[in-house]
Amino acid sequence: KAGARTVDATVDVRGQRVDEAVTAVDRFIDESMVTDRDILFVIHGHGTGALRAAIRTHLATHKAVSRWRAERESERAERVAVTA
To answer: What is the pTM of this model?
Structure first.
């Protein structure tokens, strides 16, 4: 339940299409809830920004996500808090 970014607490969707990435993020959120992980990280990269926008829109409406915020700009990632 620590807030540190580790391999176990991170999903990397760089290079994926939006639909693939959203599915991967959903699966990771589900797994995180089962393993009682309450902070996770989504790495989306930079590029055109389409993936970042889609991930942020999805996180904003996901029922298990209590809050999220962008990590440092250089990391191109989101920090996500999940509620059971």
So the answer is: 0.83
What b/e sequence results for 15-48 when a residue is b if at least 16 CB atoms lie within 10 Å of its CB, and e otherwise? ebeeeebbebbeebbeebeeeebbebbbbbbeee
- Beta-strand runs (E) in the chain: 10-12, 39-43, 65-70, 77-82
CB 76 within 8 A of CB 43: yes
- Sheet architecture: strand order including 77-82: 10-12, 39-43, 77-82, 65-70
Whole-number Å distance between alpha carbons of 8 and 6 = 5
Give me the helix-helix angle, 18-34 and 50-61, nearest 10°. 40
pLDDT digits (tens, 9 = 90+) for 14-29: 999 999 999 999 999 9
